[in-house]
Amino acid sequence: MSEEWAPKGVDPTVPNPARVYDYLLGGKDNFKADRDVAEGVLRVLPETRQATRMYRRMVGRFVEYLVGQGVRQFLDLGSGLPTHQNVHEVAPPDARVVYVDNDPVVCTHGRALLAEPDRVVMVEADARDVDGILIEARKHLDLEQPVAVLMLFLLHFVPDEQDPYAMVAAYRDALVPGSYLVISHTAGDTDPERMGRLVDNYRQTGTPFRPRSAAEIMPFFGDFELIPPGLANGVTHEWPFGDEQDTMFWDEKWSKLSYSGIARKP
Q: What is the rounded CA–CA span in Å between residue 43 and residue 103?
């Protein structure tokens, strides 16, 4: 995407995680600054492109599992573009989905892609604005009924000084029993040398990036009950709701780049 198409108020020279992710998926809704960051990531972790595409399959598996538990409401924070295998495509027609992203480019294109505003909406907001997002969410979701909150590869962009634990706790507190929290987070303890280089790459762009260890990620779930196998490395084949096709795509070298977990509010 040419920089001249940047919406008013968007600086195309400043990279954005959602547009970096779009580039890694092979999308075109990104600028040179985003591509430069992505190429820096690939120099450190060449397997990232393959892993990113596998993680899209993982989103579908998460949603299928949650739908099987009776969930029909989804709040997807830091969603990026609603691309292939996203929540609204996997969820049944009676489900309601609220996507949230803070990038105007992503939100503009996202709204253009979504054809069912009574069922699926895109909200332009920062995930750290919990109160504001909950106000918007209540316009489309019934928070007196179970909701699945998705934080997929979001929290590693919230540095410690911005207190991501308090942010996640505020979302947990807003949910009723039977709701779910899904987190995927870059691992900081499985390949510390390369992750350190990746942090340096993001630091050069001014984008915060904070991989975390399993012990640091676990507190995000609070007193929610983790679904077996708990906080796990890798992709969907490790969960009982994966399938043989997922296993075919699995690769040891990039399966340990992240942790994921699904937890239920008792």
A: 25
In angstroms and rounded to an integer, the radius of gyration of the C-alpha atoms of the chain is 17
Q: Which residues of 21-53 are buried (b: 16+ CB within 10 A; e: fewer)?
A: bbbbbebebbbebbbbbbebbeebbeebbebbe
Question: Mean per-residue pLDDT for 132-152?
Answer: 97
Residue found under tokens 């990026």: 80
List the Cα angle 250/85/54 in 5-degree steps.
Answer: 20
pLDDT digits (tens, 9 = 90+) for 126-141: 999 999 999 999 999 9
**Half-sphere exposure at residue 174, Cβ-oriented, CA atoms within 13 angstroms:** 22
Domains of the chain, first to last: 57-187+210-264 (3.40.50.150)
* Chain position carrying tokens 């995680």: 17
- Whether residue 97 has pLDDT greater than 60: yes
Question: For residues 65 and 240, what is the distance between their CA atoms, to the nearest angstrom?
Answer: 10
Q: Give exposure, 87-116, as e/b (b: 16+ Cβ within 10 Å).
A: bbebbeeebbbbbbbbbebbbebbbeebee
Distances (CA, A) of 94 to 67, 72, 149, 201: 11, 7, 17, 42
Amino acid letter, residue 210: R
* Mean pLDDT across 11-18: 78
